[in-house]
Amino acid sequence: MSPPHPVAWGPALALRQAWREGYGPAELRADLMAGLVVGIVALPLSMALAIASGVPPQHGLYTAVVAGGLIALLGGSRFQVSGPTAAFVITLAPVATRFGLRGRLLATLMAGAMLLAMGLARLGRLIEFVP
Q: Between 89 and 60, whose confidence is greater?
């Protein structure tokens, strides 16, 4: 069997597989309601976390919207949960205090580069060993 055409990869392939496995209008309605509830909780939470870590609230909104969209497009599991987390406030507040917003952006880019490198090295299985 030949691999699917490159255009068939990604969201289109995942959607076709879900429909084949019995995903229908009832599941779509439940997913839309869940997404609405998550959005109602996550958007104010992202603003609060932005304020707590020392940046204006709109930065939290930008982060929630952009990250949420990217996770939805690139996520690897139907059961993956993602969103703003208060644990990052503890990590980012000292960085912001000492190095300012530029330092926080640099730390974010460095963390993203590390995650990308680990993904390209196929080290994702190591997460099984993280408590």
A: 60
- Computed over every residue of the chain, the mean pLDDT equals 79
Strand ranges inside the chain, DSSP E = none
User: Torsion-angle region of residue 54: left (phi > 0), alpha (psi -120 to 50) or beta?
Assistant: left
Q: Count structural domains, the chain.
A: 2
Pick the more confident residue, 3 or 32: 32
Residues 92-118 as b or e (16 or more Cβ within 10 Å = b): beebbeeeeeeebeeeeeeeeeeeeee
The 10s digit of each residue's pLDDT in 53-80 is 778 899 888 888 888 777 777 765 666 6
Do 50 and 101 sit in the same domain of this protein?
no
Same domain as 69, residue 110: no
pTM value > 0.70: no
Question: Closest by alpha carbon to 69, among 55, 58, 83, 56?
Answer: 83
Q: Give the domain range for residue 124.
A: 86-131
| Residue after which a domain boundary falls, among 66, 85, 104 | 85
Residue 95: enclosing H or E segment and its boundaries? helix 87-120
